[in-house]
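Handoff note, outgoing to incoming analyst
You'll be picking up this chain. Sequence as last confirmed:
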Amino acid sequence: MASSVWTRRNFLRAMSAAPIAGAAPFGWIATAHAADNWPSKPVRLMVGFPPGGGADGIARLVGRKLEMALGQSFVVDNKNGATGTICSAEVARSAPDGYTLQIAHISSNAIAPMIVAKGRFDPIKDFTPIGLIGITPHVLAVNTKSHLQSLDQLIKYGKANPGKLTFMSAGLGSSPQLAGEEFKRKAGIDMLHVPFKGTGEALNALLANEVDMTFSSTGSVMQHVQSGRLRLLATCSPKRLPSFPKLPAIAETLPGYEAYTWYGLAGPARLPAPIVAKLEKALLDMQKQPDFIKRMSELDADVKPMTTAQFSEFWKAEVTKYQTIIRTAKLA
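Most recent structure output, in case you need it:
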């Protein structure tokens, strides 16, 4: 009888423990099923900059293409502020279910996190890289009323007049700021950085000749170059741009100098692999499409396909590079 009682008791204990032991496997199955059926509702595609800019244009283009590829709405959500890091912080805190994604950006995801948003999120550990979308070269531009007529003249004037030259940016931790800081270091001159609240405000100051120069993306300045209000002195790309073969590259005078803006697709950390794989394929497929390439060109961005693994390594290298520049320039 005692043996029978012991058996019944242990059976009851085992049964009462079964739901606890089984919770993890059943939860894993439910999670895998949800990932396999993703997306089953609209996806929020966040971008850390205002409507009308290059990042916003790329977000809307990518969102439309993802809708076509995956059969679900991708709603662009502009969450600007603090050089895009308000957006990045929200994405980092989001549930890793594939329904919050981000147009990752060199400023909001590689530079500003170390200057503007120190400690609020980790630019590597708190995100899942999916793929690089494109890269926009930077150029050195001045007002057409400026006395600066060439790159050589600018460097000579800067060395003879330390601290008198100014360069603008769209805010602390933005790519134009770091481009200017690296130029200062390589040229051996002292210039004053003047940050503004966004690209529009910064460009207005340059157009009013209130600051001397900018190291901005072609997408930001080319309309003003074409209208005759700004003048290009050099490109920040390693080699001369095919569209401006007579425009010298800064690297011809300062070897190794390079500055650009990149855009990628990312999600919060621990994004399920099946979702990442679907997005990676959709992104690589769209980057082969002529209309996508054409529209990216109109947004002054070169399409640069990368697998998820390649983009992950690229992103890590970018953070490491800018950590060095930030430390050398004593920006943080």
